[in-house]
Amino acid sequence: MRWLSLFLLLSSLLTPAWSQDAKLTLKAAFEPATAQAGEEVTLVLSATVDPRYHAYGTREKTNVPVGLDAAKLKLGGLEVVGKAKIPMGVRKEAFGIETFPLPHEFKVTQKLKVPAGHKAGEIELSGELDYQVCDENSCLPPDVAQFQARLVVQDAPQNPAKAPSQAPVPQSTADGKVTITPLFGPASAKPGDTVKLILRVKVDARYHAYGTKETTNIPVALGGGKQQFGTLERVGEANIPPGERQVTFGVETFPLPHEFEVTQTLKVPASAKPGDVEVSGVLDYQICDENSCEPPAEATFKVALPIVAGTPTTQEPGKVAPDAPKAPQGEKPLGTKPGLKLIPDEKVSVSTRFEPTPARAGESVKMILKVQVLDPKYHAYGTKETTNIPVGLGRGNLKLDGLEAVGEAQVPPGSLHEVFGVETYPLPNDFEVTQVLNVPADKQPGNVVIQGSLDYQLCDDNHCEDAAAIDFRATLAIEAGAARAEFARKDAVAAPKNEASDSLLQGSLWALILACIGGGLFALVMPCTYPMIPITFSFFTKQADARGGKVMTLALMYGLGIVGMFTLIGVLAGVIGDKIVIFSAHWITNVVIGGAFVVFAMSLLGLITIQPPSFLMQAAGKGRAVGGTLGVLLMGATLVISSFTCTAPVVALLLLPAVQSGDAMLPAIGMAVFGLTMATPFVLLALLPGRVKALPRSGEWMNTLKVTLGFIELAAALKFFSNAEYAEQLHWLPREFFFGLWIVIFVSLAVYLWGLVPRASVGTGRRVGGLASLAFAGYCLYGALGYPLDFVMTALAPAYSLEDLSEKVIVIDEAGHPRAVDNYEAAFEYAKKNNKLLLVNFTGFTCTNCRMVERGILPAPSISPILREHFVEARLHMDNPKVIPADRWAVHVKLRQDLLEGRQTTPTYVTVDPKADKKLVEHILSGGPTAWEKGYRAFLEESLKATGRALPEAAK
User: Quick check: 717 and 653 in contact, CB under 8 A?
Assistant: First the structure.
């Protein structure tokens, strides 16, 4: 369906430019935030681009690059120093066209100077940033982003110390591979001030240093014992980046980018005298390229901090001093400082802002959580996710300090991603979660502190972290005044405007439309619908005779009746479904659908008769005796009601994904398309009643089709029951029982089609159909005996077998691999007794990658012989302690602590030598699904080598 998504995206270009939402947001600030006359400052513009789009750097020739025209700046008295610094962009080539896109977050800087003699006070600067954004398919028109920033100018001291004569000088190591530029922020300080020592480190492009999370090589460090801070006082530990996680051949490293910063907070004593304080020290590091590492080394640095006379202050660098001039009365504040919280491993951050701010009593305010997944290899999941844990902001997690939450939090749905037939809905690395809050009418002015936590789960291409939560805290200012009309209280929350468009771009609407067209065509030949053809013919023949052949209006009204009935069903499903969407993947849903399929199957097999309510049938039946518009509308209702037994299962399957989307309009749209597809042939028959003579008469073939569909619906019902019982881990329908029931169903269908029971004459079609049904039953027998099936049938079959449930703790699966499920002790003893190694598989019931490895990698020809010959698998589920006995779950937790040092990623694999009772090799997936098999074999071979074992002949 992707070409339909592309077509819809291209058609969106017809939308006028002014209707587009802003795709680039801009924040402006001065560094430092305070200055004195004659000093230089830096205007920093921090740009964030919608993750679906990108802007362009200065090297761009095809599109419009980002630009900052100094002539358009309203400087407020400041002087421009040099040109703005704008990133060049990263070269990208497609179809021979060279472009230079920027990352989704980038900075533009401009040096400015406070004129000598400028008076103390506040300077406001404003301007525009030129840009153009494009996605993978098209570009939006060039646009501008407006910004403003304020700089506080302080009085110059009476006896200022001598300012540095030049800018900070880079200091290189002897081999020239590492350069350190030391400087202070701010560049000078007064007694009592707190400053930051900033070391800007640049590493040769062929090499990289390592962050604080590095355990294999030597990480960057700023040891306190090697630093000379003069009279300055050290505050806390140095801030060094953790590094970006990389895994190569199972080895985990945390390299840093080629340019990074190390900072150390220092405090000027209150008793300090004016003058220069010299600071020097040593930075420890080790650099490596792709092939080898240099020996550990040191880089020295030296820098001076001018201390100027003045009143001691306590503000942090970059913050406005408490006594700075305040904004004029009545001026709208620039905004509130976002609350920021990082989880311990620094993979996620959350910042909070409010719209509007400040708010007033009686208004609605939107709380916006901007979530950033800091590690680009990981992603969280949207609301459409059913395999992993989606992002959620539950009401129980919010402490609103008297405010009222309106509706549910709005979380993006995620973008469809399919690997090995498994669908997931990951989110971009930057996304927003919004919650509308009402401020009570009697709320007094002041600050409201809001606390909460956001639930999520992170996964990369190879494994998933455990479900987690991140806390946040933010302060909303409530000001005095009457409630403003534009921020009037809300009683319900509408879905964000861009969410619908996202859904359209993902192809879900077009996929639903095509599915409903296909479903409508299928329903036309169903046994319950086909008999309506002669009824239609008879009715319109009489109407044509009475009206002199003029039946166009009546025919269209007849079609409208059909479409209207199905659309009404869609509307009702949308209204109800919006409230039960969170249960769409629940076991109850699967039981209900499975039960409905059984009932409909029994009806098609002739075992029961489903009759719609008599009052509906009576009302609809009057259409055959009533002429005019009312008559044909009732005729349309008659078709819908009488075909209910056959069309209901089709309608249910079409409505389920539409309801799961959370968009109340999709079910109505889908059913309207379904009804239109069914109505069109009947309208044509109404206009040309003579054509009905060319259609085959409903007879024995129609009954054969009806019974065949009944058997197929019985088989489909079993799949829904299987989903329900596996979700609850009831173990009532293992693979052998499941396929056994399918064998009975399809053998019975073959017996029926061959005319054995009941006795009937058969033609070529029934003979071929019976043979196909018997062949499929044989294929099910092949699967029931434990042989591997194709991917589709493997996905349909239950995930466990009868042997898994037997009293035999160790079972041999269809590939010949010995395995114990959630029983480490049994696997350990079996491996020790049979001179095998133990493969500990930390897996999960809801882990997508775990399933793909267990079904696709472990049975692979290059892996299976090694497992069969040398290993016993202990498959330990780590994500649902409720279905695992407490004593075994305690073993799981202890093993994770002992073997993985508490790490909670799944899947993770560890080999253990049971004779020596020691860990051999640990393995996590890397390189994406295409590289998993090769990496897994290398992991097993390394384990064999560690114990002196040889590869089996079948694996060589």
Answer: no
